Input
Amino acid sequence: MEHLVWIIPLVLIVILVFAIIRIYNGLVSRRNEAKNSWSQIDVQLKRRYDLIPNLVETVKGYMKHESETLENVIKARQQAVDLRNAGNIGELMKADGALTQSLGRLFAVAEGYPDLKANQNMMQLQEELTSTENRIGFSRQAYNDAVMKMNNGLEQFPANMVAGMWNFKAGEFFEVESEEERKVVNVSF
Output
């Protein structure tokens, strides 16, 4: 009977340890899922950033009087690339929004150049950019889903206690900041 007194607390401690390990591993999995989802956005953003110099070069010859528009696209792209490399998601989201706006203005101005609209390189770049924008949208959605799962896991009991012990941090959603960014960018030529 004396052995039974020690076995019950020992079994409870073992169960508690296994529960903490399971919760911890679940939080790690959710955090890694969010990181992976972010890297998918990152891949598509890099693709977009790589397309923009080709777009600018194609447009440059036709739009000699629109140098400010082209400079804004180049500047917004460079700022986004710099922030992408810095790893600050919040600032990158703002820079990405500014890039989207400057691309929208570029496409709007390009509408006034019929020869540019008919240019084969321009049509191919437009198709690739549209495809990339769609991929970015899907990647953002997957990232936000992963962040939601991670944040839910961090806030639910008893995982919130385990998360607090190991300093798990809530993820940052990829959100549209301004009304201007919410407008659909017209990329048709």
